[in-house]
Design a protein that fits this description.
By secondary structure, the protein is mostly helical. It has one domain: AhpD-like, CATH 1.20.1290.10. It contains 10 helices and no strands. Helix 2 crosses helix 10 and helix 3 crosses helix 5. The chain starts with a helix and ends with a helix. It comes from Thalassospira alkalitolerans. Keywords: Antioxidant, Disulfide bond, Oxidoreductase, Peroxidase, Redox-active center. It catalyses: N(6)-[(R)-dihydrolipoyl]-L-lysyl-[lipoyl-carrier protein] + a hydroperoxide = N(6)-[(R)-lipoyl]-L-lysyl-[lipoyl-carrier protein] + an alcohol + H2O. GO terms for molecular function: disulfide oxidoreductase activity; hydroperoxide reductase activity; peroxiredoxin activity. Pfam families: CMD.
Length: about 180
């Protein structure tokens, strides 16, 4: 499977809603192609399904600049680290951990190579997949301060939810086929 169309065709009957939602991902009023495809690509990386990642990457390659393509991958990578670290700080009972320096390099957040708000949108969507409340709050605040509409934030999280759910179904069906 190398296209989103083939991914949709592979969705089993029980996942018909996911197929329909996947069909409408590119239709997000108020979002640029960079926001839509960058979010989808970052979420495909975070969702870890090879077939879905290849299909989304192929489509995103045609819609994104090289800088935006790399930034989407960078958002998935840095949130893969940050979401674990900051979710730990949020969940651990000992409050002293939150006062300790993280000592983790996060240079890409300051210089993502694309519009910072778009990078924050990608990061928020990946943080939703990874379940880090602290990161979600932080990225949403930056987006709000940048003037990004709530509908755009909601659309990014909707993209994340669909991409992740499709990855779960593909993984499960592949496991059953083995």
């Amino acid at each position: 499977m190398s296209s989103i169309s083939e991914i949709k065709d592979a969705m089993p009957d029980y996942a018909k809603d996911l197929k329909l939602n996947l069909s409408s991902l590119a239709n997000n009023p108020g979002m640029t192609d960079q926001q839509i495809y960058g979010t989808a690509l970052a979420c495909a990386y975070a969702s870890r399904n090879a077939k879905l990642l290849k299909a989304i990457a192929a489509e995103a390659k045609a819609k994104l600049s090289d800088e935006a393509f790399q930034a989407a991958k960078g958002a998935a990578a840095i949130m893969g680290m940050n979401n674990i670290y900051y979710r730990f700080n949020h969940l651990v009972s000992e409050p002293e951990y939150a006062t300790m320096p993280a000592r983790l390099r996060m240079n890409i957040i300051g210089k993502p190579g694309i519009d910072k708000a778009d990078f924050e949108l990608f990061s928020l969507a990946v943080s939703a997949i990874n379940g880090c409340g602290m990161c979600i709050d932080s990225h949403e605040k930056v987006l709000k301060n940048a003037g990004i509409k709530k509908e755009t934030v909601q659309n990014a999280v909707r993209i994340a939810s669909v991409i992740h759910a499709v990855a779960v179904v593909l993984d499960a069906e592949d496991a059953l086929a083995e």
